[in-house]
Amino acid sequence: MTPTATDLEHVRHALSSDLERSPQHYVLGGVTPAIAFAPTDPSEIAALVHAADEVGLAVAPLGARTATAVGRPLSRYDVALDLRALDRVIEYVPEDLVVTVQAGVTLTTLQTTLREHGQYLPTDPPPGDEVTVGGLLASARSGAWRGHLPAARDLILGMAVALPSGEVVHSGGRVVKNVTGFDMHRMHTGALGALGVIVEATFKLTPLPAVTRTLLLPAGDIDACGALARRVWDAGLVVRAITVLGARAAAEAMLPPAAAVLVEVAGSEASAERTLREIRALAPAAGDAPAEAWGRLRRLAAGPGATVLRIGVPPAEVETTVAALERSGLAAWAHLAAGSVMARGDVAASEIEALRALAAERGGFLQVEIASATLRQAVDPTGATERTLVEALKQQFDPRGTLNPGRWGAGL
Amino acid sequence: MTTTHEAHPLRFVGVDIPSKADLQNCIHCGFCLPSCPTYIATGQELESPRGRLHLISAVVDGRIEATERVLGHLDLCLQCRACETACPSSVPYGRIMEDARASIMANAPAAQPPAWRGRALFLREVLARPSRLRVALAFGRLYTRSGLQALVRGPLGATIREMLPPALVRLESSAPVLDRAPFRETGTLAAPSAGGSSTRVALLLGCLQGEMYPGVHEATVRVLQHVGCEVVSPEGQGCCGALHSHAGDVETARALARRNIAAFERAGVEAVIVNAAGCGAAMKEYGHLLRHDAHWAERAQRFSEGVRDVLEFVASRDFASGLGKVERTVTLQDACHLAHAQRIREAPRAILGAIPGLRLVEMRTPDRCCGSAGLYSVVQPAMSATILEAKMADIASTGAETICTSNPGCTIQIEAGVRRAGLDAEVCHVIEVLDEAIRAGR
Amino acid sequence: MPPPTGPNLSARHASDATLALTMATSSAAASPASAGHPAGHEALVRDLQAALGPASVLHLFEDIIAFEYDATIERALPEVVVFPGTTADVSAAVRIAEQYLRPVVPRGSGSGLSGGAVPLTGGVLVVLTKMNRILEIDVANRVAVVQPGVINLQLQEALAPKGLLFAPDPSSQRVCSIGGNVANNSGGPHTLAHGSTVNHVLGLEVVLPGGRVARLGGRLADTPGIDLRGLFVGSEGTLGVVTEVTVRLVRTAPAVRTLVAVFDSVEAASEAVSAIIRRGIIPVALEMLDREIIRLVEPRIHAGYPLDAGAVLLVEVEGLAEGVDADGASVEEACRGAGAREIRVARTAGERDRLWEARRVGIGAIGAAAPAFYLLDGVVPRSKLPEVMHGVMETSARYGFRVANIFHAGDGNLHPNLMFDPDDEGATARVLACAEEIMRLCVDAGGAVTGEHGIGLEKRSYLEWIYSPADLAAMNAVRVAFGGAERFNPCKMLPGGHGCASGHGAEALNAMRRGSDSV
Lengths: 412, 442, 519
Ligand SMILES: Cc1cc2nc3c(=O)[nH]c(=O)nc-3n(C[C@H](O)[C@H](O)[C@H](O)COP(=O)(O)OP(=O)(O)OC[C@H]3O[C@@H](n4cnc5c(N)ncnc54)[C@H](O)[C@@H]3O)c2cc1C
Ligand code: SF4
Ligand code: SF4
Hints:
heterotrimer; A: Uridine Diphospho-n-acetylenolpyruvylglucosamine Reductase, domain 2; Uridine Diphospho-n-acetylenolpyruvylglucosamine Reductase, domain 3; Vanillyl-alcohol Oxidase, Chain A, domain 3; C: Uridine Diphospho-n-acetylenolpyruvylglucosamine Reductase, domain 2; seven-stranded antiparallel sheet; 18 helices; 35% helix
């Protein structure tokens, strides 16, 4: 259903005209929206979403657009809501290790600000730091640090969200420990923008490690790599990432094309030194590797041009999973501590279902991270099972299906 | 919704009603729950210290009456006082429970719960009267000596055991082996040392220890001598009254206390030595027991201050010189009335730890009640057995050949547990092991 | 109920009202005679007995009276108490309660400090203490699966020999249940480094309206889908009953150092907290005990806290031995810089344990020292600690109350304890007024009104200081999505509600007036 001119006029009426943008710049999956806006203020966003809600237009909140191929394709797309103009760091108190930012701030900007005070937001989502904070939270994707450091959903202290009702609502606060009211911010983290538009977020920060080093540990075949990775994990060392690489994945990350373990050491000088010693004792063949390898893995996990799967399995089973995936022609690597196996390549819908069943058998799951719209129609990208509650929440927060309709499947 | 199911629901009456000041100390934090054996066994707030305190409060306030159900919860309490140790708020649970029971027993006899009355009667008429107790124990001794006990417990006894009701079999297996002549001596038990430097102390014979475990008294006297004491056993002493207090028969307890205070005062000693933890705990609380008695309150307080558990006393003196080897694996069961009521935990460990060759293997939660608790094992056999079973499992996992206790009630109970579990281990008082080491060192 | 604002949020309120219960509010700790039963009581009891077995259902006054409290001064009687043994039992109890229009209130060990487990409007109290088995410990994958009634310490003791631990360690860990931890998103001294309970819960099995059993999250972090697990943790039993918890385990650190820094004043110790963080060190624990607390606990535990100190910081750093040395030295420097007059390092595990014992028994020791006390739980940004602590001391002095502070300083999570005698004329009202002023200080400093104990009954009205009606309406919408405010634990967490006493502190005041059973 194409929006009528009256509908569009109603929406335009809500905002000042200088915030309107050309819809041509916001094509998603071949669909051009009817209208596009780049508001600079949360209340403008609330007004826009509310106006669209009133006339039944569908709104897609957009950040850096690195994760638009996550979840089901949109079923309707009328209004593009560009959040990148919401780019202020609202409050940063280094002494409190707490920062409050608007949703359009990129991770690059944020990390630069924080670095000046020796701090950072310890998260490494795909494809890189160009993601906006809003996108980071809405997609809740994590990288190699997950399992060693807290992820976005653990670091979020408070949030402001614009709702189709026209309100901007807050939850949590700016203190590091808080059980005041429901943790609405956790609900929105990972909700793919289906329950509200994240406009502001407060995070808990971490001091930057004094030393970081990347090591490549060749260990023979993939089984040996898995066993070695676990030994490193069990040794209680200061590491920020332990990733088991299949040969194909290693090659794609421009490392020697053989199974290996990639480790990032991060800590104080004394602890890092001890850690390096112990790793060398565990893996005499360990050698330095370029830190860029991590960036490449993050990019690989973000797709363009290929399907990316994230398969959760118990850490004890990552190497067998990586081996199986690589055998079937995919590039696969696994972040050990989170039990998060990434696979990239060409996969058919039927294969995905088979893999999902396999993962479920081991108490795990399969999520299609990035895929063509066709594939995301053919298989449920998340495979999430609890639908009743999600429907009830959607009914409460966005009963007319204004926000990102269809992203959680038909009717959601 | 007042529930008046019973004919005569009771209230608390008399001078011993638990004080609000005591009860108010409870902040309902629940820290005591996981150390309470009956809560562990049931997972039931009503069988927990906090729940019982709340019920007692409610009875004091007149919100509920002491119905049979309420009394049941009070009755299931072992009075082990583990909750006191756990309580960060210093709630005097033991005192509150004794006061509550006393305030029930202060009702007219006809109104008292029959089981409570029966228990008090037994305690008063048997335990507090040496002649009757001795007759009762004589039957026990006869049972052992006649060989009947061995017969029932031996391989041939299987048929007999099958013929008896299970409850009776369990009761039978609780009965101690009474194969030795009792220890009833009074007067000087150990003479002063020649140099005149010795400390004069008195020994409490108690009602059961000397009758059932005379070896403990013998060992105690030898050890006291070893640490430089002159030991006397005053004429006129008797049962300490602990079990009477626990059962709410405070009047009998008070009479017994007065008799003991008088007897020991006459002896003119520096300390009254007790080798049964339950008795020691009670005697240390004579001051409180007689607080309302103008004539006795002060004397009782002074007396209580002079009471020492034998382990506490010995550990504070030079006991470790000249000990011989005792090559054995030992585990220690803390008596509740030593660890919780008297707060003595280090002394038995210090003593056992000083004995060359002895290997002390601690069990899990050594300070958790064994389920003996005075008459408890007889009155609440099911709960007592549940608790004992858990205890025996902990003991068995230590692989100990000797299980040390510091209270005759515990010894009886654990001996029964050893028999039921088919363990190959002996049970004895810590002081007996120390005595053995002293003799081995000669 | 917060005024519904947006058109969408109000959509469900009508259906919510249909559930509104007509039952008599048994704020029934009053005299038994006045507590009449709502209609259908006998049938409710009979059905519950048939489903769970008679031994698992309590309904007589002298039995349920032991379930009218938690560790606060709040009191209210349930109508029936049930002890489920399985998830199916919980499901049946929820179904039956719903059939008789009774609310369900979950209860763990009843150690809560916000009245969360106190059944304000009666109903069916589901006590989870018998569901207390550790179902699985998967060492290789650092995961454990437990029933909700498992005691926090029971799990820690099972994990310790395997070199693992469950990071949330409330000071009440020897009694509180994992279900309670999940419901309250509990913290503890080690939350500073490890985060609250929510960071350590991977999956939940919950019983929802209609007795429906659902699984939220899974055995791994970041299970796909909307994070219902994260929403459920910290929901204080208002969304459903937790019947199984899958938790993430953490490896015990190879080395740990515990030290005590002694200061002349609370303010100086507060300065030191920021000084430590400024050095880029996040200790695993950073706790403060003031003079009042030290004087109460030291004579009982003999840990060596100096009785003349104004305040001490109890600091723990862990990691590799080398890192612990470096961090420990840096913490010492920071403390000295802020005016520490003495620093003691625990040399043995036993010493360390004794130092921590002060933290565990501290609150109880206040109970022994005063006829009554009121424990607050506020949070402020760490950098505001000196100024707010000054305000706390000043305010309580102005009201004439002794105050004892024992709290998670590293997180800025304050616990002032106001000591008073409820028998003093007007004392209770003054305590509440003083508490309110202190909570205002926290909020004005940019903080929050509870860091770990939860909103429960006690702090519902404070929420309005922090959240707008629209914020609260959005929170209420979650409850509506989960079946409405009258099904699970009514009158908790959000202000107002059908049959709920309103007005700040009214509940507390009533409870205190009731006399001896309250402290
Ligand atoms: C001395 C003392 C010190 C304390 N220290 C701390 C501390 O350091 N940190 C801290 O965070 N807390 C602390 N607490 C508070 C309390 O112990 C915690 O909140 C604890 O998590 C409560 O657990 P519980 O099992 O006792 O829960 P309860 O008190 O029984 O219940 C608490 C809440 O959880 C809900 N609930 C319980 N079980 C379930 C379930 N299975 N499903 C759904 N809802 C459920 C109840 O409805 C209620 O709302 C302390 C308490 C005391 C008394
Ligand atoms: S005395 Fe023992 S049995 Fe009784 S409540 Fe205390 S811990 Fe439980
Ligand atoms: S530990 Fe003490 S204060 Fe806490 S509930 Fe038990 S008796 Fe009451």
